[in-house]
Every structure is written in structure tokens, then in C-alpha cells.
Amino acid sequence: MKESTRLMFAQLCVMMGQAYNVEDVTKEFTVSPSMEQTLQDKIVEQSEFLGKINVVHVRDKTGQVILGYASGPASGRVDTSGAGERTPKDLLGLDPMDYQLHKTNSDVYLRYDTIDAWARFKDLPIRYTGYVQKRIANDREIIGWYGESAAADTNLVNFPLMQDVNKGWMQAMRDNKAGNIITEGATAGAIRIGAGGDYANLDDAVSDMIQGIPKFLRAGLVVYVGDELVSKEHAALYKSIGSTPSEKVLATASMSMIGGLPWETPTNFPGRGLVITTPENLSIYVQEDTWRRQVEDNPKKDRIDDFNSRNEGYVVEVLEQFVALEFKDDNVKVPNAAGDGWE
């Protein structure tokens, strides 16, 4: 390691030691609860979507969801002058989801030559920390939608979307309330969205799907829709109208809502995904006192290794408040370019 590289590495270690209040970051240490919360906040700041959902610290590695929603109306009256008695209702009587957190590693490295190339940046430690946090935030988004299992040994080659790192929100629904995941329409294994399909358009799909959510759980619902579906919808809409500016403005305005609900396409959301829920219904649980970190010089590989781990999992707080189309097996079909079939 060059002297300049060594100095930069030392600066990185000093900065991290001060931030985590530990003497030597080259030895594995557990992040303190206060710093753990700060670290989580910094990761959330790297993602617009994560800032809208819950990132919750929990004590136990397994348990039942800790947030929830009233199971139905609780107000009324009983005439107690006779035999009538007031009977309390179970406030959280909906189907509770059990959660299980899994150890998740986010191990990265910096090569010596990369450190040398970055030496002109005096804020290298801050830049580097930001890159790590950004990557963890992106990974959480991807796992949240695509995660299907928690393998003992993950394989990024076979599962490039980290499907084997943890069970995400869609998998939580598959496991706990599969009836709220629509897997097919009139054709086995396919859900067709477009003229002549199961749904004429996205408005039609959302209007039908929302019927799967009890009325008392519909406040604050948002439609999460993939960019491929939005693109197809826009193309079909513009094709059906004239070309004057006013007509295009009206067409764009008509897409401000889908099925009467606000919509958005979160980063890393499946291209043909369609989910209806509330942001507050989606959570990431992180177990307290499990974030461990260590930075070490690895001259055998000409690099600095940075090991991060914590126990975390993905939770749908109220299963009844989540409906979706199944995208996993390319179930969602749209009209092909020729307009004579589905793809």
C-alpha cells in the first residue's frame, strides 16, 4: 500500500471511529443503539421510497407485526338496563403476520488504486460512506419487491435481483394471504391488460382490484405501478387521441389518477408490477443491537474490506390492505407491437 493510500485509509478509520465512538474499527464492533438509528436514517435518506414506509427497530428476531390497523367499526351502544352487556371488540382482530428477521450482510471493498484515484477528494470518507448507504438503500428496495426466500448461501449469479436474500412484501402476501395476489385471468397463468384482455386498461384493473380491500381500509391507498405498464398505457392513450397540444394535455391529465387513486412508480419496482396498498402498510424491521461492522486492510487482494451485517426482514402490517397482480412468472401480459397478440 502506498503511503498516500495508507494515510487515506487511516483517515477513513479515524472518521468511522469517531462516528461510531469506538477505538478501533479494524476489530469487529456492534453499532450502538443511538448510532444505529442515525445509520438507518442516513440509509433512508438515500431513497425517496424508503422515506415513505416504516423502518422499525424491534427487540426480537421473530414475533408478530407491531403496527396495525383497527379491524373494523368499534363505536355503538347497548341497552344495559336489561340483560344487554357491552361487549368490547378486538381492535386488532385482522389476520396478524408473523415476522422473522434474517442476518443480512452488506460486505463491500475499496481497491487501493480506487483510493489513490479518489485522493484528490478531501471528503473521501464521507463520499465512501454515502456510496455504501446508497447501495444498501437500493438493495432494500429490490429485496422488498423481489425477495422470495432467505437462503443460507445466497447466489447473485442465479438470483441477480437478490430473490434469495430475504422474503419481501410480495412474498409475505404469497405466504400469508395468497388470495389477495391475482395470478391469472381468463387465460391460465396470464393476466392481460389492454383492449380485449382481462382488464381494458389500468383504470379497469385498479377499479377491480380495490374491491379486494375492505372499505374501512381504503383511506390513503396508493397504486404502485411498473414503468412498462405506464409506458404501454401512455402509448395506447396517445394513439387513441388527436395530435393537437390541447388533446395531449388532456390525455396527460387523465393519467393523474389510476382507478381514482394516486399512483407512483417507485425506484426498483417491477416493470409490470401493480400493487395497491398504503406506504404505512409496508415495513422493514431491523433487530436492535445486531448491526456489526469491521474495516480491515487486505493486502493479499490490494484492497480495504468493509464488513456490515444486521438482522432485518420485510413486513406487511395489515395483510387485508394489500392487493396485487402477480408479476413473478411473467404473468402480466400486454398487447404486442403488432396488436395481434400478447407479450
Mean pLDDT: 90
Distance between the termini: 54 Å
Radius of gyration: 25 Å
Envelope shape? globular
Structural category is alpha/beta
Number of strands: 16
Whole-number count of domains: 2
Work out the strand percent.
15-25%
CATH architecture annotation name of the largest domain: 2-Layer Sandwich
CATH class of the largest domain: Alpha Beta
CATH topology of the largest domain: Major capsid protein gp5 fold
Provide the succession of SSEs: HEHEEEEEHHHEEHEHHEEEEEEE
**SS summary, helix count:** 8
Biggest sheet record: 7 strands, mixed
Low-confidence stretches: none
Into which percent range does the helicity of residues fall?
25-40%
Short synopsis of the structure:
By secondary structure, this protein is an alpha/beta fold.
Provide an overview of this structure.
The chain has 343 residues and is α/β, with parallel strands linked by helices. It has two domains: 3-68 and 94-168 and 282-317, 2-Layer Sandwich (Major capsid protein gp5 fold); 182-280 and 322-333. It is built from eight helices and 16 strands. The chain has helices at residues 3-20, 33-45, 112-117, 124-146, 169-176, 202-209, 227-240, 245-254, and strands at residues 29-30, 54-58, 62-64, 98-100, 102-105, 108-111, 181-182, 191-192, 222-225, 263-264, 274-277, 282-287, 292-298, 303-316, 323-325, 332-333. Strands 1, 2, 5, 6, 12, 13 and 14 form a seven-stranded mixed β-sheet that branches. It has a five-stranded mixed β-sheet with strand order 7-15-11-9-10. Strands 3-4 form a two-stranded antiparallel ribbon. Strand 13 (292-298) and strand 14 (303-316) form a beta hairpin. Helix 2 crosses helix 4. The model has no long low-confidence stretch (mean pLDDT 90).
